[in-house]
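thread: overnight batch results

M.L. [08:02]
morning all. the overnight job finished for the chain we discussed friday. pasting input first so we're all looking at the same thing
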Amino acid sequence: MILSGSFVNTHGSQPARSCLAVVINQLIALQLLHMNREETEVLRVLWAAYDDAALVAITKRAAATIAPARLAEWAELVRAATTSPGYQEIDRQLVGGARLG
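M.L. [08:03]
and the structure it wrote out:
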């Protein structure tokens, strides 16, 4: 595995795995900022404009544009991510195990 070796990036002597860790941390930080804006600003506007039935219809129309094989791939990724013991424990602690769907 490349990250377990002593590989060096092209910009200095820092090991590639350290550079990768920095980039991943920056990506996560940016994603959290994006998600915060989505949760605090965008969803408020969306919910003001559409009722639940309209949002369900929009979601179904969007999902219908995804090829069944690709949708199955994503469903498996979501299933694997949300059925791990660690996720289930976090879910239990945060929301008492109540799950939608």
